[in-house]
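User: My collaborator sent over this chain with a note saying "see what the structure looks like." That's all I know about it. Can you take a look?
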Amino acid sequence: MTNYFNPEATFSSLTSCIRKQLSKLNNSLDHLPDKLREDCIRGDAGSQKKLYYGFYSFAMAICLRYARDRDEAENILNDGFFKVLTNLNRYDSSKPFLPWLGRVMTNTAIDHYRSQLRHPETDDITEMDIYGENPVIDSKLNYDDLIKLVQKLPPGYRTVFNLYAIDGLTHEEIAEKLGISSGTSKSNLFKARQKLISMLDEQKKLTEGVVRALNNDNEQHESKPYRHFFQAGT
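Assistant: Without extra context I'll predict from the sequence alone. Here is the result:
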């Protein structure tokens, strides 16, 4: 019997998995010590290296979501840290460091996207009803698996998906950041969701196929001694 599902629930489940993993990174060093900040501004190489590696995981997690692969993420990361180090005097040390760092990395990813691509206008989407088999989002798909699916999205879809579904921007805010219409933002999100749901469904079927194959192999292996027994007894 085919199971039908609410696409909004499936989409929310996927974004929830990503957000939960990202929230764990917020437990890392959040406050930037004043001395480290001052030494970095002064140009001390050792301090700059300490800052880079101290916040590498947090920054890379953002860049990976916006990039098509790890190589592109590394480029965005390095550009982002250059901006961090050259604008560190603008950071208000009385406030948490991670949100500021996150904004720098996200804006760097957007700048990278805008420098590489054009944004084709698409129709404004108002109805977003999708039905089909329910792709299970559970422990079978870990965070790295989900990020790899996001990276497979076309750049425009991937950028809007991250800004809207993960970073929480409105379509109007996304339109302003990317220089597109809010209708295009809605359309790109709709198509990103369609593609993600399709990829999750394919992943589910692939996993089920592997499990069936393994079960069949086990059944055949277990039945061989009995066949030999009966053949020997006849």
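A starting point for your reply to your collaborator: Residues 158 and 200 are 15 Å apart (CA to CA).
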